[in-house]
Design a protein that fits this description.
358 residues, six-stranded mixed beta sheet, 8 helices, 14 strands
């Protein structure tokens, strides 16, 4: 990523993080100035000499910090909290001149006035009409502070295109009703039509219909038994309710005891999972727990209409944990999370891995 696109690709820094960076920079500066003044006082045994040495060191640090800020956009405090100062229009460093002007305004605002100067600058950033948190010193220097921290691997990219509205909180993934194929049109044999027209009139005379006894009612049709998914060796204790499989990619889940199946709808996992009233469930997955860390209805997962696989903890006692690329995070109860190929989800002391099949 080129640096001139930093202002477009990185989010605007929060005021709280900017205050932390400012506090770190001022703390480092006062420590260095205090150490220089104390060392001079010990060596020269003169208070005014120590004050002058501290003032010289302060001025040098101010100039050096402005130069570094203008060239790289960083200060020690901003580098520690992941912030950077860039030009508002181009995203490049603001230059030494603008950095000196910006640092001068901050220095004047930092003069001990019961924090009125810093509060005024913070107020101008909060009231920024451009909603980019640019204070008066940023407007003078044509700068903006951006957050350059690495992106969280669990944060999914947002598709700007139109998407279906899905009630992921309730996860009511209702399969489409089966569509009965239309009856084929009745075909007429042209030879029979020709023969009928060629018969004599007496044959074509209407015949008295013979009443036939009513036929006995046909027995209700039975649904064929559910087919086992490929790779299922018969050990699966999953109760699958027949239905119509959703279109889209195939997601296979495998539990730590070897049980595996293809997700065809909403699935509930737990010691004795039970659906809510009116909830359309396709799989019921009972899980045994050695330490009773799995709740009765622990969590749910299933495919969304756009093809992604979504998991959600249903307020379990011990919670659920998502592990992706060696990094784990707990799932918030009632908040769905999107799964990708290779994810591992822990339900108490049980684990489930996710694979996307071609």
């Amino acid at each position: 990523m080129t640096e001139h696109r930093a202002a477009e690709m990185y989010p605007i820094a929060e005021l709280e993080r900017r205050f932390h960076a400012f506090f770190i920079d001022r703390l480092i500066g006062w420590v260095v100035v205090g150490a220089a003044g104390l060392g001079t006082w010990v060596l020269a045994d003169d208070g005014w000499t120590a004050v002058g040495a501290g003032a010289v060191v302060m001025a040098l640090m101010w100039v050096a910090g402005a130069v570094v800020l203008g060239v790289s956009g960083n200060t020690p405090g901003k580098a520690m909290v992941g912030l950077r100062v860039v030009h508002h229009g181009t995203g490049t460093p603001i230059g030494v001149g603008r950095a000196l002007l910006r640092s001068l305004v901050l220095a004047v605002a930092s003069v001990p006035t019961f924090a009125l100067g810093l509060a005024t600058l913070a107020w101008t950033a909060v009231e920024d009409r451009g909603r980019q948190r640019r204070g008066w010193h940023d407007h003078l220097a044509h700068s903006v502070v951006v957050d350059v921290r690495p992106v969280d691997p669990f944060v999914e990219e947002v598709d700007e295109g139109p998407r279906h509205v899905v009630n992921l909180t309730a996860m009511r993934l209702i399969p489409a009703p089966p569509v009965e194929p239309p009856a084929p049109p009745r075909r007429v044999n042209p030879e029979l039509s020709t023969r009928r027209t060629a018969l004599p009139p007496q044959v074509l005379a209407p015949q008295v219909p013979v009443q036939q006894p009513p036929a006995p009612p046909a027995p209700p049709a039975r649904r064929p038994p559910a087919q086992r998914p490929p790779g299922d060796d018969g050990r699966t204790a999953v109760r699958t309710i027949p239905g119509v499989a959703p279109a889209g990619p195939r997601w296979r889940v495998t539990f730590d005891n070897g049980e595996s199946f293809v997700v065809e709808g909403l699935a509930l996992v737990g010691r004795r999972p039970e659906p809510r009233s009116g909830e359309q469930v396709h799989h019921l997955v009972p899980l045994t727990s050695a330490d009773m860390s799995v709740s009765k209805t622990h969590a749910q997962f299933g495919p969304a209409p756009d093809g992604v696989l979504v998991v959600m903890d249903r307020g379990s006692t011990n919670g659920s944990v998502l592990m992706r690329q060696g990094v784990s995070r707990p799932l918030t109860a009632g908040k769905p999370a999107t799964l990708v190929d290779g994810d591992v989800v822990s339900f108490g002391d049980r684990q489930m891995s996710v694979r996307r099949e071609a």
